[in-house]
Structures are given as structure tokens and as C-alpha cells.
Amino acid sequence: MTNGAAAAALYPEIEPFETATLAVSEMHTLYYERCGNPDGRAAVFLHGGPGGGLEPEYRRYFDPEAYHVVLFDQRGAGRSTPHAELRENTTWHLVDDMERLRERLGISSWVVLGGSWGSTLGLAYAETHPDRVEGLIVRGIFLGREHEIRWLYQEGASALFPDAWEGYLAPIPRAERDDLLSAYPRRLTSDVEEVRLEAAKAWSVWEASISKLRPDPDLVDHLSEPHQALPLARLECHYLLHRCFFDTDTQLLDGVETIARIPGTIVNGRYDVVCPPRNAWALHRAWPAAELDIVPDAGHSGLEPGIVAALVAATDRLR
User: Fold this and answer.
1) 89/235 Cα distance (integer angstroms)
2) What Rg value do the Cα atoms of the chain yield, rounded?
3) 80, 116, 119, 158: which one is catalytic?
4) What is the percent of the chain with per-residue pLDDT over 70, rounded to a whole number?
5) pLDDT over 60 at 55, yes or no
6) 238-247 b/e with 16+ CB inside 10 Å = b?
7) Residue 4 CB: number of other CB atoms within 10 A?
8) What is the pLDDT of the chain when averaged over all its residues?
9) Which of 160, 169, 171, 185 is the most exposed place for a label (fewest CB within 10 A)?
10) What value does the mean pLDDT take over residues 99-111?
11) Active-site residue identified among 73, 97, 272, 293
């Protein structure tokens, strides 16, 4: 999934020194792993989606000699169980899960890095537990606002990628296309497996097709696989249908004052169609102390060369 230029900018490949699970409820068990230096500065990585799950490259944003890196699959994603489960799965469950994991590992505070949905969760966590965050790095900013959701899943990005948009519309009858975020969940929770998988693939391929500045067939193929597509589509629909479980449309922006003291970096691709730079700009205006890095030759993916370079530079600064 990583092209050569991005791979060169990441730290070398690394294997975890621990993999384990943590039961966070009677229903949900999280998979987590640790790598790097167990005596180093603690950091936690938050994957996207919701439902995206971990990839080996995510370990490599951090200097392994300086950082004790914790990565985990969020509820319903990756190797966490039950797979693609929607029950007991909200933003605030995930915030609580991070605290349980931190306490389990005996970490007093940590650097938080999250991209796309991970930026949303990172901000929600930091605003809830600011004393536990030593630094916050967010990439491909998604703030959960109504117009951001409509841009990607109802009308907006469709104007730039009309060919890919046709595939996204394909599982939905014309009579239901005026409210795609209601039409899709009906199919993704269908009792018929074929219906669920058709909708999940169309949803996930749409995102994969527009995630990079240059199209990446390998990414499209990866997210077409049922084990990847189903949790991504089901969980994203679930969260978006419930407006990320926020009380107001601007809850994250309104809460930024609680993280004003935390060293922060905001990274966004100039040509990010999934999470346009206006989101990052709105966050920066609310949080001017954070450093803003608009990467001039990148889209949304955290594995594009310019995004990789910006994230590694940010973790190095906090090292």
C-alpha cells in the first residue's frame, strides 16, 4: 500500500515487542500492540475509518529508539472483536477505551497521533482528558460537521470524481438517492450477506478511489476485500448517521480551548478531497497555537510522501 517515496521517509519496518487483547466490555475486546522503546516517550496511534484498522506502516511514523508506541484496533475493526459490531460502539466508548488501555499499560500521559477519523477521535480524547496528552498531531482533519458529511457522501466531492461516484450510487435505487446516509445503512445491516457486501464494497471503493492525489489501484483492491470493506462501511455509516455522537455540530471546535496548552500540529493535503483543507483551517483558526502544515502536493492518504514527511517531522519535534 505504500509507494517507494513514502516508504523511504518512514522509519524502518518494525515488529511489535508485545501483542495482546483488552476486554473493554462484556461484548468488545480490543487488539493492541506495542513497539519501539518500552522506556521511551509514550505515544498512541489512532487509525481512521471508523473501522479502518491497523496497517504495519502505522508503526513507522515514530523514531523506534525514542518512542514507546501503542497501536490498537478500535471497536469492531481489524483484529478487535466482534468484527464490524455496531452495538456499544460510539465516539465516547472509544475515548473510554483509550483511557482503559493507557491505565492497563501504566502510562501517565502520551503523545496522540491520529489521521482522518483518527483526528476526530484524537481531538475528542484530548478535549476530554487534556492532562493525559503531551502532544497532539492530527492529519486529514474531520470535525464531524454536517456539511463535511454531506460533501463526501451526498454531494460535493461527486463533482470532482463523477466516474467513481457512479460506482458509489450503483447499489442504491434512484428513488433513495436523495438521502444516501439513510439508504446505505439499510443495506449494510441487511440480513442478506450479498446485499451487505455489495454496499460495503461500493462505499469503500468510493473512498479508496479519491483518497490519493494519484489514483492507487492497490489501495482500491485492498479496501475491496470483504474483511476490510465491511467494518469500514458499516462503522462509518453508523457514526455518520449519528453525527459522530456529538451534542452539537461544532462540539470539537467549541472545545478547543481545553487543549490550548498542548503542543499541536495540524497536517492536511492541499488536494484532500475526503477532508478538504477548509476543515484544517477552521481548526487552526480555533487553535492558533498549533502548527499548520498544508502539504502542497498531497491528497488524503496518510501514506503519501508529503504527508509522511510532515508527520515524521512532527513526531521528531516531540521526541
Assistant:
1) 8
2) 18
3) 116
4) 97
5) yes
6) bbbeebbbbe
7) 7
8) 96
9) 160
10) 98
11) 272
**Residue 123's pLDDT is what?**
98
Is residue 188 a contact partner of residue 237, using CB atoms and an 8 Å limit? yes
Question: What is the C-alpha to C-alpha distance for residues 145 and 155, in angstroms, rounded to an integer?
Answer: 14
| pTM for the full predicted model | 0.96
CB 180 within 8 A of CB 172: yes
**Where do the DSSP E strands lie in 98-215?**
110-115, 133-139
Instruction: Give the confidence band of 6 by pLDDT, cuts at 50, 70, 90.
Output: low
* Nine-digit cell string for 66: 525514542
**Using omega within 30 degrees of 0 as the cis cutoff, is the peptide bond preceding 277 cis?**
no
Closest to 115 measured CA to CA, from 143, 149, 141, 78: 141
Residue 3 pLDDT level (bands cut at 50, 70, 90)? very low
Q: Does residue 4 carry a pLDDT above 70?
A: no
State the Cα angle at 292 between 291 and 293, rounded to 5°. 120
* CA gap 33, 71 in Å, rounded: 5
C-alpha count within 13 angstroms, C-beta hemisphere, residue 184: 26
CATH of 4-146+245-318, picked from 3.90.1150.10, 3.40.50.1820, 3.30.1330.30, 1.10.287.130, is 3.40.50.1820
Check pLDDT > 90 for residue 250.
Answer: yes
Q: Helical H runs in 154-293?
A: 162-169, 180-188, 193-210, 217-224, 226-241, 251-254, 277-286
Taking the C-alpha atoms of residue 120 and residue 6, their distance in angstroms, rounded to an integer, is 24
Least Cα distance to 116 among 165, 173, 53 occurs for 53
Rounded to an integer, what distance in angstroms lies between the CA atom of residue 284 and that of residue 226? 37
What is residue 11's DSSP assignment?
P
Q: Is 116 a catalytic residue?
A: yes
Q: Is 300 a catalytic residue?
A: yes
Domain boundaries of the chain, sorted by first residue:
4-146+245-318, 148-244
pLDDT beyond 90 at 301: yes
Amino acid type, 315: T
Q: Is 272 a catalytic residue?
A: yes
